[in-house]
Amino acid sequence: MIIILRSEASDADIQAVEQKIRNMGLEPHVSKGVQRIVVGAIGDETKVDKEALEALPCVENVVRVMKPYKIVSRDSHHADTVIDVGGVPIGGNKLQVIAGPCSVETAEQMQQSADAVAAAGCRLMRGGAFKPRTSPYAFQGVGVEGLEMFQKAAKAHNLPIVTELMDVRMLDTFLDHNVDVIQIGTRNMQNFDLLKEVGKVHTPVILKRGMSATISEWLMAAEYIAANGNHNIIFCERGVRTFETAYRNMLDVTAISVLKRETHLPVIIDPSHAGGKAWMVPSLARAAVAAGADGLLIEVHPRPSEAWCDADQALSPDQINKLMGELKGIAQVIGRDL
Ligand code: PEP
Ligand code: MN
Question: Is the CB of 236 inside a 6 Å radius of any atom of ligand 1?
Fold first, then answer.
């Protein structure tokens, strides 16, 4: 950590800074330049209260040298981590497409969805039994019964299931229903109590990016899960809020490059909640694969126009089938496999 002092800092000020650093368990090293005095603090930066130093009148700026995230950082683990989801690897050379409806509706809809997902060659299935809706009057999901319908339909094709957990009180129910991957949605990315609890189990977690979260905040949210013991974390970029209204969210393709450098954990893309329109999904999905994403999370419905949630953005069985063919080609070009 580097502490830059104001030019008028007195010897007494410098000593006060040195003492504060020592009290935090680090060793201060003062370097007096012509215009600036810089104090380096050597030791465990996690012990440093940055704000307490910045609050000193003689301090101009405090700069961290180490990254605040550790377990999820590539510095702590150089090789790409591959997460095993019921025998399906996420994060290796093989790309995975997780497809399925926005929400679980009926047993028949789930069975038809599972048929379409498996027929297209996707190896995992998505579907929300509990839905975070903007309006309290909108369909909220079918609840626990949905988990049962989902499992039944998916297991017929050996598809591990991905479903969103919103309420920590439902975690045991998710475990009882053998949910293969717990999804933490954009609205809960910084629900720290929820993150801590999913950190205490070993079920893989898809952590979606908060719609207005910086990449650093997102990495720190993942660190909450990892710090509690669960290292099976998959990042999912799903578009961020901007001034643009022509689409639902702006897919941050750049985040793929940044995350692949910053973390060893897998990174997937949700083109459905980014574009918000089915016609945009194929191009965003192709861009994501070309940019190095480890997989995709795509909404698919047997009859998109009848979907109870996010009807505009769901692909039909034919559309996901066609898209999978295109993605295979792109994967091959970049030396990957789908
Ligand atoms: C979803 O995947 O169904 C969902 C609600 O996504 P997000 O949290 O990205 O809005
Ligand atoms: Mn949705």
Answer: no
